[in-house]
Amino acid sequence: MSSLSWSEVRDRAIRFSHEWAGVRNESAEAQTFWNEFFEVFGVRRRAVASFEEPVRNIRGQYGFIDLFWSGVVLVEHKSFGADLGRAASQAFSYIHDLAREGRLDEIPRYVIVSDFARIALHDLEPEEQRDLPLFAGRRVRSIEFPLDALHQKVREFAFLKGEQPMRLNPEDPANERAYAIMAELHDALKDGGYLGHPLERFLVRVLFCLFAEDTGIFEPRAFTDYILRRTRDDGSDLGVQLARLFQVLDTPPDRRQRNLDEELAAFPYVNGDLFRESLPFVDFNRDMRNALLRCTNFTWSRISPAVFGSLFQGIMEARERRQVGGHYTSERDIMKVVRSLFLDDLRAELDAIKSDRSTRRAARLGEFHRKLCGLRFLDPACGCGNFLVITYRELRFLELDVLKGTLWHATRV
Q: Rounded to two decimals, what is the model's pTM?
């Protein structure tokens, strides 16, 4: 996302702290404070987050989140001297309200609260949760520091630069929602008469663009804003504009026309063959365009790679989905099969080798490593490949344990 070096970020943080030292008026200065805070990390706040996001509480009344980046961070700002603990509690209540409204894919991982002079950061999904305190029923990793220490803490905010991905929960309901959204778009286009291979290839391209703008390959909201700004509400020109975008994505910058529209020129070149094939234009209508925009409103960065294949199942022809039994398979169910077939046995074998303190330990680790590398797996009912993807991932985890064990043995010797 941001191309700033950490040295540049620290310099900007020092200037930011100096400029905002002594400011106390929340209502007059808060929004400017956060616009400039995001600029410290090379991020345009308007491109990713909005002020005063409405959310309805349990009584049916609306509250307003001070600053909200869907799926990433929620900010609550108070006047100088305010209780940051109470501010955090208010932020957590907004998160409960989002969950109550069914906006699960929008729930952020991070909460930031500030009174200008102090900043507190709460990580709701810390990688290591042992010994962490409970906050509103969650294990939360929290730090608080004075404004003039921001330059020392900038790496805590690496997620603003896109360098600290959110932890993906394969059992997150967002995964099933993503599957359903793509299937809905598929069926809307099919009902419009766009069928077969062109439809499936077109949707794979759309899916790539959705991931790209949420994961830093494109600029934030680049694909969404292109649709909103460059196409009519009735969808009549959307197919032509998307075909134009796909052509640009398949063209290296040095081969693009010099007078290419600036918004299109900002998109990066995507190598490979994803955008190479010439497809028929899609004749969108208003409903089809709205179905695509519903896809852009989803936070695709939350999706586990383990369910990526299931999204492709969702964009098969509806009849084909029924014929092959294509459906969403949770990682929990896949792991039940994988563990019982081979994974538990391999793990037990490795644990026994790691507990060996004899001179044979290193040789046994090497033998086990070669065994892992020689394994071959066949999924005779392979659809999207999820079983094979997860199998590969778990084998790599085992390999990492082998390498760590080898390194431990070498350092002990």
A: 0.49
